[in-house]
Write a structure and sequence with these properties.
This protein has 18 helices and 19 strands. The chain is of the alpha/beta class and about 450 residues long. The strands form 4 sheets. A 9-stranded mixed sheet has the order 5-4-17-16-15-6-7-13-14, with helices on both faces. It has a 5-stranded parallel sheet with strand order 10-9-8-11-12. Strands 1-2-3 form a 3-stranded antiparallel sheet, with helices on one face. The chain starts with a strand and ends in an 11-residue tail after the last helix. The relative contact order is 0.19. The structure holds iron/sulfur cluster. The site of iron/sulfur cluster has 13 residues, from helix 1. Iron/sulfur cluster binds next to helix 1. This is Formylmethanofuran dehydrogenase subunit B. Keywords: Oxidoreductase. One of its GO terms (molecular function) is formylmethanofuran dehydrogenase activity.
């Protein structure tokens, strides 16, 4: 059977034009990039986790669903300060239940933002954000600056669907109506495809933006900035001239900006630069968020508790202090005594000492396929693939909410979705505490 307009749950672009032919252990999907194609193949993969597992004598053994859920609840209830890591490859509805479990247990609740675009979220909190949807950029945008990102490889259809090639209402000639600037120390495929590649030295983003702001204020920056950034002042002037004289420009940033020296201060000054550019033309700032629905967790956590990631509920109310209550920090300081990881391979994304501690403490893992995090887990719960096997809400990279519809049902009788699994787990946790009348802080 053929299904149309399916949303791809692989990356933040959330492409909504996927055509899927599905049936009898066979799947063919059209309009996907390679990353998306691999994600859709996962639904019939022989490697897929299809039953709960419990570690016995150092080996993961098949177990009954109720037993696995019971043991998972035991681990979380008996921990003094558990870590709940809500990976981004699931729906906002699942994130919401996870956050409520975190509040109930007095846990740390975090997500992929903490490892990826956390500094960008912090920069937004410092200086606000002038944003636009990808649709506005498609229809009006005639200048795109890719700063510290390489979408041709990391988000392959972003340029063809929104940023560069599509014909929009006021950009009828597609690529020919747009100027592309890439700011990157590396000569990436995106930089090669751009009209201007500003090849700055690594870790000099803050200095380059400061120099651009100085030029915008009508002054010439100190000549030492050429040495520090590796970018000649005439190139900066050329870049600024293009930015001042466009109709609608956007800076789309990636981890290259928020992970280089300066971190959230880079993002803060970039936002201030964008605000001042609006004195000359319309200019916006966007984040190319790589993981599917990584923006969703930040949205849900912010509307429920006021903070976008790294929430600490130890005192019964939410606290936020990146660097203290964030995943890497609580693992490095051994400040948590159990963990629940869902829909991401956390072990692969954190420093070795944190990974070693994560492997030591009782660990529950919920996901669809085996990975290093699974190997060190004590309980494994099979996951459901959102947008294919159950519906839910995702936030696209530009913070637009999209409702995803499945084209098949959950392959399991014991759960309908990751949200359902978390609700079942929450019910068991409340039973164990003999406390069923919990009402969350945000209600
Ligand atoms: S760009 Fe992202 S959302 Fe679009 S098809 Fe590729 S992986 Fe899927």
């Amino acid at each position: 059977m053929v299904f149309k307009n399916i949303i791809c749950p692989a990356c933040g672009a959330a492409c909504d034009d996927i055509q899927v032919e599905f049936g009898e252990e066979k799947i063919e999907a059209k309009n996907l990039c390679k990353m998306g194609n691999a994600k859709f193949k996962a639904i019939i993969s022989s490697r897929r986790l299809r039953q709960p597992l419990i570690k016995e004598g150092g080996k993961l053994m098949a177990a009954a669903w109720d037993e696995a859920l019971e043991k998972a609840a035991d681990i979380l209830v008996s921990a003094k300060r558990p870590l709940l890591f809500m990976g981004s490859e699931t729906s906002c509805e699942a994130h919401e239940v996870g956050l409520m479990i975190g509040e109930y247990l007095g846990a740390i609740v975090d997500s992929n933002t903490t490892i990826g675009n956390g500094p960008t979220a912090m920069g937004i909190q410092e200086s606000g954000k002038v944003g636009a949807t990808e649709g506005q950029k498609k229809n009006r945008g005639d200048l795109v600056v890719y700063w510290g990102t390489n979408p041709l490889e990391s988000m392959p259809r972003q340029m063809s669907r929104y940023g560069v090639f599509p014909r929009g209402y006021w950009t009828k000639h597609g690529r020919f109506d747009r100027t592309i600037i890439t700011v990157d120390p590396r000569k990436t495929p995106t930089a090669t495809a751009s009209d201007l590649h500003v090849q700055l030295k690594p870790n000099s983003d803050y200095e380059l933006i400061s120099a651009l702001l100085t030029l915008l204020h009508g002054k010439i920056p100190h000549h030492s900035v050429e040495e520090i950034t590796g970018v000649p002042i005439p190139v900066m002037e050329n870049m600024l001239d293009l930015m001042k004289h466009c109709n609608l420009g956007s800076i789309s940033v990636g981890l290259g900006l928020s992970s280089s020296l300066g971190k959230h201060r880079n993002v803060e000054i970039a936002m201030n630069f964008v605000k001042e550019l609006n004195n000359y033309s319309k200019f916006t700032f966007g984040i190319l968020r790589g993981h599917c629905n990584v923006a969703g967790f930040s949205q849900i956590a912010s509307y429920m508790y006021g903070y976008p990631f790294g929430l600490d509920f130890t005192r019964g109310y939410p606290r936020y202090n990146p660097g203290e209550f964030t995943t890497v920090d609580v693992l490095r300081e051994k400040d948590v005594d159990a963990a629940f990881v869902m829909c991401t391979d956390l072990l692969n994304q954190i420093p070795t000492d944190c990974a070693a501690y994560l492997a030591e403490i009782p660990l529950i893992y919920l996901d669809t396929s085996p990975c290093p995090t699974m190997v060190v887990s004590d309980i494994v719960l099979p996951g459901i693939i959102d947008a294919m096997e159950c519906d839910g809400t995702f936030y696209r990279l530009d913070d637009v909410a999209v409702h995803v519809e499945p084209f098949t049902d959950s392959p399991f009788e014991f759960t309908k979705s990751n949200e359902d699994t978390l609700k079942q787990l929450f019910a068991k946790i409340k039973e164990k505490r003999n406390h069923t009348d919990f009402s969350p802080f945000y209600i």
